Amino acid sequence: MKQQIQQELKEALLQRDNLKTGTLRMLLAALVNKEKEKNQHQLSEEEIQQVVGTEVKKRREAAEAFDKGGRTEMAQKERREMEILQKYLPEQLSEDRVRELVKDAITQTGAAKAQDMGKVMAALMPKVKGKADGALVSSIVKEFLVK
Asked: Which positions ≥6 away from 103 have C-beta within 8 Å?
């Protein structure tokens, strides 16, 4: 996957796509930092997806902060960067599918109240890791357990 990112960076440079070039450079820098942190020469596909997921989350949070601050142009830029990065993540689960998985996890763990959220999340996260936003999953679990 890292080679694919590098190839797409070269293409973006040739096309003079500044936004994509900058976004992919930041992603490659994050990957190199993770490799150094882990003392590895190469990250696994799962580790690369985790780094991409982290970068997407940063962009989402920044866009929300810019929206609150009234800086819509900056928020839009963050969202465009997020779209570029999401291409490197596995296909995301729909909200309906996440709801089904939450129901299954609640049934499986026997959770009945908000204090059981940790049990539900522990059972659920391995199934949705990298395929759904953790904040979305958490909010749906809360919705079901607070009823």
From this structure: 144
